[in-house]
Amino acid sequence: MNQVFRQLTPDDNHAYLELMLAAYAPIKALGIHFDAATADLARVTHHLAEHNVYALLVDGKMVSSVTLRYPWGPLPGPFGLPHIGWFGAHPDYHGHGYGKKIQDWVEQEILVKQLKSPAVSLGTATSHPWLKDMYVKRGFQPMMEKDLGKGHITLFMKKILDPVAHEKWLAKQNLS
Fold first, then answer.
1. For residue 157, which of 136, 137, 143 has the smallest C-alpha distance?
2. Dmax of the chain from CA atoms?
3. DSSP element (H, E) containing 46
4. Residue 140 in contact with residue 157, Cβ under 8 Å?
5. Is the overall model pTM greater than 0.90, yes or no?
């Protein structure tokens, strides 16, 4: 089994759209509106052009991906930190841990090693039956809830990646 982690480009739009629609179909069936659940080829192409998207490919098949949004980018997260946007794992490979593998890889290789980020955030629907618990198990802490007008309440969560750098970052935020 050949596993490759890499950043996607707009040329990956067809495979990425297939992954997002498959990954978000169960969430869409719950009546939760996440943007990735209703993506089309134009939206996915635009998403890939505007954000850094990383994927895990197994034997050439895209099985999971994570989008990073940045404080300086077009859709910053709420805390002035890198923010995980569209995050999905293909349901045909449930039980292989591919979602955790891409998340761990992005956290270590991109956020910690390259960006030296003290923490990362994400948002999920409070009404989703298991995502909050999964993210808590993966080290995220609930921070705040907000109605973004999408038909559900969004729970914003944060994961500390480097405790020392995070303390310095917090001190700097309090000086602003």
1. 143
2. 50
3. helix 41-50
4. yes
5. yes
